[in-house]
Amino acid sequence: MSRRRYTVVDDTTREAAVRAVVNRINAGDSFTAAARAAASHLEVAETTVRCWVNKSGQRPRRTSKDVAALEAELALARELNRSLIEKYGAKEGLTVR
């Protein structure tokens, strides 16, 4: 059984990682993807980076209005896909779920 290896991260590096994650989220990445990227660069666990960001209070959150707009976009995309599959999918062997 291998021993766990712990990486000590100083405050300046931790704060830079939090800023980097927040910037990636604001640029459109998911929290998970942004935390994973930072964690891999620092060679720490993804959950460690997620914890740093959550504790910092800087994690961007979507508003209910943002979520509603995204859900409406998704519903429209699903309907368009359904229409395309019904129209052209038979040729390709596709079906509507």
Describe the 3D structure.
There is one protein chain. With 97 residues, this protein is mostly helical. 70% of the residues lie in helices and 0% in strands. Helix 1 packs antiparallel against helix 2, helix 1 crosses helix 3 and helix 2 crosses helix 3. The chain is elongated. The relative contact order is 0.10.
Short description:
This protein has about 100 residues and is an all-alpha fold. The chain has helices at about 10-25, 30-40, 45-55, 65-90.
Overall helicity: over 70%
**Sheet with the most strands?**
none
First-last Cα distance: 46 Å
- Order of H and E elements: HHHH
Multimer state = single chain
Percentage of residues in strands: under 5%
Regions with little confidence, pLDDT below 50 for 5+ residues: none
The whole-number mean of residue pLDDT values reads 90
Radius of gyration: 20 Å
> How many distinct helices?
4
Label the structural class.
mainly alpha
The coarse overall form would be elongated
Number of strands: 0
